[in-house]
Amino acid sequence: MTEKQRNASARPKTRHSSGVTHVNEPHHDNFTVVGNHLAQHSELSLVAIGLALHIQSLPEGAPIGIKALAAKFPEGEIRIAAALRELEEHGYLARPRERLQSGQVTTRTISYNRPRAAMAAGAPAGPKSVAPAGPKSVAPGGLKPAAAPKPAAVPRAPAPSGKATELLADLRAHDSRLLLTERDVIRLAPAVSEWLERGVPPTAVLRTLTTGLPQDPIKHPAALLQHRLTTQLPPHLPAVPPRPAPTSRPSPLQTCDGCDRAFRAPHPGRCRDCRVSSVAVA
Predict the structure, then answer these.
(1) Burial 143-182 (b: 16+ CB within 10 A, else e)
(2) What is the spatial distance between Cα 196 and Cα 166, in angstroms, rounded to a whole number?
(3) Which pLDDT tens digit goes with each residue over 149-172?
(4) Cα–Cα distance, 86 to 43 (Å, whole number)
(5) C-alpha distances in angstroms, 139 versus 31, 115, 145, 157?
(6) Beta strands in 203-247 (DSSP E)
(7) Given this model, what pLDDT does residue 115 score?
(8) What domains can be seen in the chain, in order of their start residue?
(9) How many CA atoms does the CB half-sphere of 274 hold within 13 Å?
(10) 193: part of which helix (H) or strand (E)?
(11) Per-residue model confidence (pLDDT) at position 113
């Protein structure tokens, strides 16, 4: 008798009956190495983690401004700006502003594949910058050249408005389900500031965030507020048209010394017809 052959199972072997099963294949080109300290970060949002992965995969000098990123992904400028701030707070990104010799101010973006706190502790990791450094110069005789003067420091943009943070922190007084952590308040404050800068009164912002809430328990109040602040953002107020220049007042009425007709002139005298007649007679 011929021995029966059993077909191998098509499913990957796993020791777990539930949860994720990895099917890993090696990458030999076109890949980016990302540490688990970023991929499994417990304090960063998923938008920030994904944005950090995208930035680390870009070549040197690639533009990563807020508008450039918003043009590539479905997230709006507010969510992308908030994610960039998260990466700055946790040491994965630095955006120092420098003044060039021409006087123009530029933002230099530096991406760290490990957070700067770990680098300060002694872990070797090099920054990935979108602006390449200039060529090094060597002084004659092998001596080190004098250090170039540092560019003048440019003050960074001010922190989010205090009214925005106060408004978010006070939401729990209107509905206890809208209790936010301090981190959530800092993350949502720029979005509220955007509403206030567009001329929306704080009472109107508060009404937008607290009315029409679901009856069920709110498990993620920060996500709910972020959705409302993003999807219901009003447009900018239209520019106020300039006031028209005041028109010059007409000259007062005068009585002609020659024909007693009324005419307009800044000073008394003869009307135009009488002046023409006198010239013709002469």
Answers:
(1) eeeeeeeeeeeeeeeeebbeebbebbeebeeeeeebebee
(2) 13
(3) 554 444 444 444 789 999 999 999
(4) 9
(5) 40, 35, 5, 39
(6) none
(7) 83
(8) 36-130 (1.10.10), 162-231 (no CATH)
(9) 12
(10) helix 182-197
(11) 85
Q: Which amino acid is at 246?
A: P
CA distances from 86 to 31, 153, 192 (A): 24, 23, 17
- Those residues with Cβ within 8 angstroms of residue 67's Cβ, 6 or more apart along the chain or in another chain: 77
Dig out the tokens for 54 from the structure: 């995208």
| Of 3, 163, 1, 194, the residue nearest 80 (C-alpha) | 194
**Its pTM surpasses 0.85:** no
Summarised one tens digit per residue, pLDDT across range 31-52 is 888 888 888 888 889 988 988 8
Instruction: Enter the tokens of residue 191.
Output: 């979005």
Q: With contact defined as beta carbons under 8 Å apart, do 99 and 91 qualify?
A: no
The whole-angstrom separation of Cα 33 and Cα 129 is 17
